[in-house]
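Appendix B, record 7
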Amino acid sequence: MATLLHIDSALARENSVSRAVTASFREAWEAAHPDGTVIHRDLAAEPVPHIDADAYGAGFVPAEERTAEQQSAAALRDQLIRELEEADAILIGAPLYNYAIPSTLKAWLDHVILPGRTSGTENPSAAGTPVTVVSSRGGSYAEGTPQEGNDFAVPYLTHALGTVLGLKAEFIVPELTLARVVPAMSGLIDAADASAASAHETAATRGRELGGELAGATV
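Structure tokens (predicted):
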């Protein structure tokens, strides 16, 4: 059986576009691979602690030489890393907040990026795992828009997930999610709906294909 690591970070439980699109992926993945396992981390409901000196320092100290505080911090970090390493596919909801990713998602990344194990080595321990990122945003940061160049989520995640961790990252970017909320954006509702529909379709297709591939590989 294959394992999907599903991570959501949107603050909203309802009316969250990133959560809705990751749900489309997950439902298609589960339908294609009903015997698979899903590990779901909701970083808004149960955030992991921001990395501190004990957690960071423990990564560079032999286990037998760690302090009690370092041992406790290292246990959580190791759990998060093992979930990453043991996943056959990864799904991340990463809404754009103030031009970047949610701090809770950054905290998770700070824990799982460990030099000598998941990064900084010729063979990072999770390298090659496919990761699908849903990066929703209230407006548009596409080429030619007034906000072009101000998206610091996709570029950062491309580097952190792809270059640093060695994962195979693909992005789904539903835009204009605030069109029905902000009166000044009312003229963009049709474009927002089209973007959301495309994101759901792409997510479902991606989930179905990956689920099917992994189900076939584990038969």
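Remarks on this record: The chain is about 40% helix and 10% strand. The beta strands are 3-8, 37-42, 89-93, 130-134, 168-172.
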